[in-house]
Amino acid sequence: MNRRNWMIAAGLLLALPGMALAAKKPGYLSVTESVEINASPAKVWNLVKNWNGLHKWHPAFSNAEIKSGENNKRGAVRTLTMAGGGAQFDEELDGFSEKNRKYSYRIISDSPLPVVDYSSTILVKSGKVKGTSVLVWKGKFMRKVADNPPAGQDDAGAKKTIIGAYQAGLQNVKKLAETK
Hints:
Blueprint lengths: L2 H22 L4 E9 L3 H8 L5 H4 L3 E8 L8 E6 L5 E10 L4 E6 L7 E12 L6 E11 L11 H25 L1
Helix pairs in contact: 2-4
């Protein structure tokens, strides 16, 4: 190996640790989950549209309370209480559309979830078959532990937690909509 090639190789080797560290830095993650429901979009929307009623259809929550603003109005802040432990955190409503059967919100306080900078949207669409619906829940976030996260709090763990939370809510809405 001539001197020039050796210098290039040495430079690349010196750069590797920095490149490895850069690869471990967290970036935004996203999750989109959905469920097909054998009920009309209007019926499904009526189950989920009350932004302050998450605890009525999601089994992980025991209460929701408007802290400021007005329910289903942009800027409203709710405090959620988790079931089985009472942990609480706040979310702010960023948008609500009755016409489009959709709302968006974000977490604005520390939460027990392994994520930060979390924003989410819930949407009810018509299904492929008349009289059916698709309930979509999507979110964007970063893992809470930035450097060297322990197992379960890395990117895969953060995504798994959010997917589990979304699926618990989606499956419960499906059950409620299809049995009432």
